[in-house]
Amino acid sequence: MSKRFDPYPHVWRLPLLIWQGLFFVGPLLLMVALSFWVVRNYRMEPAFVLDNWERMLGREVFWNAYGVTFRRAAVAAALASLIAFPASFALAFRVSDAARRWAIFFLIVPFFTSYLVRVYAWQVLLAESGPINAVLGFGGLGPFTMLNSAFGAMVGYLTLVLPLVVILQTFSLAAVDRTLIEAAWNLGASPRATLFRVIIPAAKVGLILGFVFAFILSFGDFVSPFYLGGSKPPTLSILIIDTTKSGQQWPRAAVVAVMMILTLFAVASAAVGAAYGRRR
Fold first, then answer.
1. Chain-wide mean pLDDT for the chain?
2. Which of 103, 141, 248, 270 is the most buried (most CB within 10 A)?
3. Which range among 4-13, 42-51, 65-74, 106-115 has the greatest average pLDDT?
4. How many of the other CB atoms lie within 10 Å of CB of 25?
5. In 13-149, which residue ranges form alpha helices assigned H by DSSP?
6. The whole model's pTM is what?
7. With the CA atoms of 246, 252, 257 and 261 taken in that order, what torsion angle do they form, in degrees rounded to the nearest 10?
8. CA-to-CA distance for 82 and 162, rounded, in angstroms?
9. Helix (H, G, I), strand (E, B) or coil at 220
């Protein structure tokens, strides 16, 4: 006897499907189509030509910007993960539940303020005549050039992603089964062995997701490399702005954006495979 089709469960999926279609799939398809259009007399005209792809992917400036963007995002994600882990470990295993809840609340508070405002604050702090160089000057150090440099951009990246990484790691570590840790201790495992062979493997999903979120946010960020990094060398987000200003070349900018999205899809897919794949 054939099973009757029940439409009721599918109805509840419609809002999510409509939302994703209107605000993700639709704009993505439009951007892909836009990358094949042409600009004539500063006006975009629908077409299907590969000229935009050949021009952008054949330019050294694109690949230089791609390398700078990828390296900075990877370094920012790695640094955020390493810096966040001690704090996340302490919140998960060394404090009470009430203290952890308050800590999570204070980690969320920075998101109440615009990211751009926080970056402007770092412009003041990192300036050669700013407070940080003034404090270092009392010790006979500096002044150091921290603004309009890779260091300044990295400070901005960490300002953006570090609270989020701490939150994700804390939730993941707090969910580790305590009986596994007790079993490791009963079997004579040292604290270091327990950490690397029990706790980290059990919390690897949250740790990897924290790294991926940090990479994604840093990879697409425009504010930090522009206002704190001095936009030199340019990242892909800055290259998009420069391309649109050059003769209204929105189709060529769309090529850069599509390459960024493809990269993020590849990184996210690899991370999901690493997070949810079977252990050997």
1. 89
2. 103
3. 65-74
4. 11
5. 14-20, 26-34, 51-57, 60-93, 97-108, 115-126, 131-138
6. 0.90
7. -160
8. 10
9. coil
